[in-house]
Specification:
Helix content is 37%, strand content 21%. Helix 4 links the parallel strand 2 and strand 3. By secondary structure, the chain is of the alpha/beta class.
Length: 131
């Protein structure tokens, strides 16, 4: 398994953040959605999504413990009450109808087994949810 350096990623991921902003704008969030960010990395994109959800919330997941520690440290619940981070492999999600939106940016190409991820995304969404 690849080991990520969260601080290095944070300092060198401007392009990924740019792509994410474009995708976030296309989500047309209304402000009350519950969003799952798969492969949240250092959390800065997840925090941007949270800022667009004054009445909603975001859960960022990543299989890298280092990335999640970094995200929690830099985007603490005290400042971002609608934002949480969990260590989780996208191939083993166990959510059930919890999210209005499942979002992922520059992550899914790292996945080895896509079918469990796609099934997990489908199961994670509310009936009217979108990816």
């Amino acid at each position: 398994m690849y080991s990520w350096d969260a601080k290095d990623y944070h300092n060198s991921s401007a392009e990924q953040q740019k792509w994410a902003r474009e995708l976030i704008s296309k989500l047309a969030l209304l402000g009350g959605e519950r969003v799952l960010d798969i492969g949240c990395g250092d959390g800065k994109v997840t925090a941007e999504v949270a800022q667009r959800l004054p009445d909603g919330s975001v859960l960022g997941i990543d299989r890298s413990e280092e990335m999640i520690r970094f995200a929690r440290r830099n985007f603490p619940a005290k400042r971002f009450s609608n934002l949480a981070f969990e260590v989780m492999d996208a191939e083993n999600m166990s959510f059930d109808g919890e999210f209005d939106v499942v979002f992922s940016n520059a992550t899914l190409h790292w996945v080895i087994e896509h079918l469990p991820v796609l099934k997990g995304i489908k199961k994670s969404l509310k009936p009217s949810g979108k990816v």
